[in-house]
Design goal:
single chain, 377 residues, mainly alpha, hpI Integrase, Chain A, 4 domains, three-stranded antiparallel β-sheet, 8 strands
């Protein structure tokens, strides 16, 4: 009876129109009001009991879902990207612009999985690619997860991503890179070969500086914070790579003597850092007979070369900077020659297996026939 009297003092359920509300005193001594969003009194009573239970444990009231908008979740995610100096901040802000076209001013608790599917359908009808829509949905999902971690919301809707069938499958062989390099300026050709051997991204190759190249230890290194994952990594200076870098070092020294200044970059145009070479690349690809080849396809080619060389997947991932095995396998595309070789190995094994198996059967059959002949005699 005493507990019932205390519960009545601490909180109560009441009705506003068709919806039941409840109020209670929190650990801070303030009175709090909350809508149950239901016309059932039992629902409001259950929610009140949960809040009083939190109070008994000394915990603050649960976040009011009505007070948090989708805008607030996206703003918090953008703030986190700025604090962490994420390179993808601009892409996130673009995704937020599209998301707020449908979810601007909408309470976070009212968004359902059906709403996210409707958003995806609208974006597809506008001509957006499935991959683009997925990046936007992933941003919304990350915003909800951050809201849960920050105790701003308690639940998040189920956000399903769309299937993507637009994965690139391009790659280049060494003789193709050689043909392409003949149509590229020497500086860009060196960048191309370096990316083909290492599998490093363009944004990792172009800013490379000489302190990151250790000729004595035999490694080219990427410092933490300069890669997409934020983690540093190293690549051994194989013979071809060392020869290229030594040639670049000699060229850099000549430029430094001529200009009377230090040039810190490995790849440069007579001392000027290389920022972009999109037009030159496109022209060279057309002249070499490889239209549509992307610079990023060199990364895929390096992954395939590492796989061909028999290097363990974990070691190859360390060299190229892939964080997940799923993405690495997506890059490790097999060409027709490799698949044909696998088919030949399978055919040879099946032939050997049939010969061995049928040989055993024939020997057993001959043994049974000889026994039957001896028995009949």
């Amino acid at each position: 009876m005493a507990s019932r009297m205390r519960r009545r003092v601490d909180g109560s359920v009441y009705k506003r129109g068709r919806i039941y509300w409840f109020k209670w005193y929190g650990v801070d001594g303030r009175r709090h009001y909350r809508s149950s969003e239901s016309s059932e009194r039992d629902v409001a009573a259950a929610m009140l009991r949960q809040e009083l239970s939190r109070k008994d444990k000394g915990r603050a009231p649960s976040p009011d879902p009505r007070a948090c908008l989708v805008n607030n979740l996206l703003d918090a995610l953008a703030a986190r990207y700025r604090i962490e100096s994420r390179r993808s901040l601009e892409r996130l802000l673009d995704a937020c612009t599209h998301l707020l076209r449908l979810f601007d001013g909408v309470s976070a608790m009212r968004v359902t999985g059906a709403d996210t599917l409707r958003y995806a359908d609208l974006r597809l009808h506008e001509g957006a690619a499935a991959a683009t829509v997925n990046r936007e949905l992933a941003a919304l999902r990350a915003a909800y997860r951050l809201g849960q971690k920050n105790a701003v919301i308690e639940t998040a809707p189920y956000i399903a991503l769309l299937p993507e069938n637009n994965a690139r499958k391009g790659f280049a062989e060494a003789h193709q890179v050689d043909a392409l390099s003949r149509h590229l300026p020497t500086d860009v050709a060196d960048v191309t070969w370096f990316a083909f051997w290492t599998g490093w991204r363009k944004a990792e190759v172009l800013p490379l500086r000489w302190p990151q190249v250790d000729f004595d230890a035999g490694f080219a290194r990427l410092e933490p914070g300069t890669t997409k994952s934020g983690e540093g990594r190293s690549f051994p200076l194989i013979h071809e790579l060392r020869a290229l870098l030594e040639r670049r070092r000699e060229f850099t020294r000549r430029c430094e003597r001529a200009q009377g200044r230090i040039i810190p970059f490995v790849f440069h145009r007579s001392g000027v850092p290389i920022k972009s070479f999109r037009r030159v690349w496109r022209t060279a690809c057309r002249k070499a007979g490889f239209p549509g080849l992307l610079f990023h396809d060199l990364r895929r080619s390096a992954v395939r070369n590492l796989t061909r060389a028999g290097i363990a997947q974990s070691d190859a991932m360390e060299l190229t900077g892939h964080r997940t095995a799923a993405i690495f396998r997506r890059y490790a595309i097999k060409d027709d020659a490799v698949l044909r070789e696998a088919g030949e190995k399978l055919a040879a094994w099946l032939t050997e297996y049939r010969q061995r198996k049928f040989g055993d059967i024939r020997r057993e059959t001959r043994g049974q026939d000889s026994q039957e002949r001896r028995g009949s005699v």
